[in-house]
Structure formats: C-alpha cells, structure tokens
User: Fold this.
Amino acid sequence: SHIKFDDSKVKKFVHDNEVPEMQAMVDAANTELREGTGAGADFRGWINLPTDYNKAEFARIKKAAEKIRKDSDVLVVIGIGGSYLGAKMAIDFLNGSYYNSKPKENRRGVQVVFAGNSLSASYLNELEEFLGDRDFSVNVISKSGTTTEPSIAFRIFKDKLIKKYGKDANQRIYATTDAKRGALRKEADANGYESFIIPDDVGGRYSVLTPVGLLPIAATGADLDQLMQGAADAAKDYVSSDLEKNDAYRYAALRNILYRKGYVTELVENYEPNLRMFSEWWKQLMGESEGKDQKGIYPSSANFTTDLHSLGQYIQEGLRNLFETVVKVQNPPYNVEIPMDKENLDGLNYLKGQSMNEVNDKAYEGVVLAHNDGGVPVMTVEIPDESEYSLGYLIYFFEVAVAISGYLNGINPFNQPGVEAYKKNMFALLGKPGFEELGKKLNKELHE
Ligand code: PA5
Assistant:
C-alpha cells in the first residue's frame, strides 16, 4: 500500500480480539458495498470512477484548463459543499497556502478563487476587489443546478462578465452540472456554455475526481493523470475484505470499535498548513455520510502544531470521548535548516543544523505519546509526499473507509436528507413561490 497506516496507538484501548471479531461484520458491509445490496446503492459510482471515467470529457477538461490559462488571470469557481470542498482542498494540498499570492512565473496555472460557498456580500465584495480589472473566467458547479448560494453568486459574476466581455462572456463560462436536470443545465444548453457532467451515481462529497474537482485543479496546472492513477491504485489495493490486508477497512473497523466504547468525536489532524482544507473536505465526507438516524461519529479537526496551543489543552485533559486520526506527510516538499547563532540568546543552539521537518516529526511523536497517555486513541495515515498521486490515493482511502464504516453503523452512507431542512425554512422565509404555508408558520414562530 502507498499509505502507511499505524494503529499501534489504539492498542491500549482496543483488546486484541476486537478487530478479528469485527471481520464478519466487515465482510457483510463489503458485500453490501460491492454487490449493491446496501442502502444507497445507486450512489456507488465513485468506486470505479478512477478507471471508468469518461476519457473524452477528461481530455476536454484539460483543454478547457489550457484555454483558461491562456485567456484568464483568475478562475472564479462557484459552488458549495461537495461542489466546492474537493477542488479547494486539492488545490491547497498541491500548491500550498500562498499559491494565489505567488508571482505568475512561480505558478503552474491561473489563480483560483472560490465564490458561492456562503451568503456573505462582504466576501463577494472583497473577491471583486481582488479581481480588479484582470481577465477572468467562471466555473459554476452545481449538481442540482438550483442551490441558492452558488446560484446567487453566478448571477453576480455572470453580470460582471457580460459587462466586461459583452457577447464573448459565454466563452468564459464553464458549467459543471447534471447531464439532464436542473436550471444550470438548461441555462448552459441555452447559452452554449462549455459544460461538464456530474455523474448521476456520484454524490457531492464523493465528486472530487469528477469534473467538479478536476477542472479547477487542472486550471492550477496539476497533473490529473497522476491524481487519477493514485486513486485507481488505491481502488485495487483496498478491495480485499480481510482486515489484515486492507488498511482502509481496518481504519473503518477501528473507528467503529472506538465509537461503541464512547469515543464519539474524531479529530482529523495534520502538521502541514496546506492540509487544512483537506480536513474540511474530510469533515464533509465523514459527517454527511455518517451523521444520521440520531447517531454517528462527530468529525472534527485540529491543525498542528498551531492548535496544540489552543485545542491541545482539551485534547490532553478534557472529556474523554475523543480519538485522533493524523494525516501525516513523510517527506514534505521543502525543508529548512535551523541556523547557528553565535550569541544563542534564544537558547536554540541545541537545534542548530537540524531541519524543521525533523523538529516537526519530533513534535508529532511527542504529541502522540502525550495524548495517548492522556487517554486518547491515535491512528496515523501516512502518505510519502504531496504529489498528485498520493492525494488521489488518500482521497480513495477515506472514501472507501467511510462507506464501510457507514454500513458497519447501519446507516446509508450515500444520502444526506438532513441538509434539506434548513433550505425549506430559508425558502419559506424568503417568500419563494410554493413555500407560502410554511412561511406563515415560521414567521409566526419567529415573532411569538
Ligand atoms: O454533498 C452534498 O450533497 C451537498 O454538500 C452538496 O454538494 C451541496 O449542497 C451543493 O449541491 P449542488 O451541487 O447541487 O449545488
């Protein structure tokens, strides 16, 4: 396996026989997943996606990215939830925290900014200021084609494009949406936007390796073939149901064992700031998949060593219902040597000649032991580097793990009925046609 999975620091909390005892349940979950006998079977398109994707469309994505790199300085990516987090986390992971601030010659592609992931007018205003009068294109992404946040942002940026480019505006709009359904599909067809398809059988949080993630990622010049190859190899490596051979399944089984013991919150953690958004992507994947039927592990995150100076106190000594999953990079792309200082007024000369990465590794080791002593089970998922290949592999690891984990916990890991409730209320309060009755009821409740 390309990932090193370390569960030695859960041993204190999980008896030797507990993992093998889960094997029969994991076998059953595996059958549900692979044979489509489980709930949500229509949304398993992500399983074979890394090899069974639409090759012609894939080539078209690369071409579109090339065109964007030629005629634009900035790509505005409009989307929310599953239509936002995958692209954002991949771009940050592959390009680092300061990608957009780098001079053009130090970037492989265009700057990429995101809109439509909140309802903040101030944010949009800042984004418009950032754009200034530079050339830009828009990639609007929505599976349903009707989500309020991206729809509003798209209206605003479409207007800006038309004012700037007139009838050529349509050549700067790329729509990623359903093949047939939804308002965005209708609009894309009517206006002749170049469009890409979100497969019916892939839900939002599993869609990073569809055009949803691929076009924005390609616009930064990343290698899509390597990204898909990493995921394809993970798909092959994580196919066995045997907990001794399949670390993604083992991770799922251990989560389930811990959950039943009362460890109901999982923190995903990193030691590299370019993985912050990875945690946000992971939280959606885990939370939307598992948090239903009044149960599920609550997915949370912490960024280290930053949060060792804040949440670290809670993790060490607070309520003992936490476990941690560290996503660790064995060889980060850069290293810095700590210099010698003759005066040594800061007392740091004991570190002279050591590298930052070594110090970071010692922090990790120290933290794992301290948290373990404090009663926190810790698992580590280690990737060798920050390549496209490793990212593809890592994405698949967690996708297949949460599917098994969900079935182990007796829920449908592929639906998200709970994200609808607020939408109905918001529509009713905004006076959207069709929601009049609910609007009356809610307004009464609000003003009681
Ligand atoms: O996972 C999900 O289903 C959600 O987070 C959606 O991705 C999000 O609501 C955006 O939906 P859409 O792509 O239809 O605009």
User: Anything to note?
Assistant: The chain is about 45% helix and 10% strand. Residues 388-408 form the longest helix (21 residues). Residues 186 and 327 are 41 Å apart (CA to CA). Residues 80-83, 142-144, 147, 150, 203-205, 288, 416, 419 surround 5-phosphoarabinonic acid (CB under 6 Å).
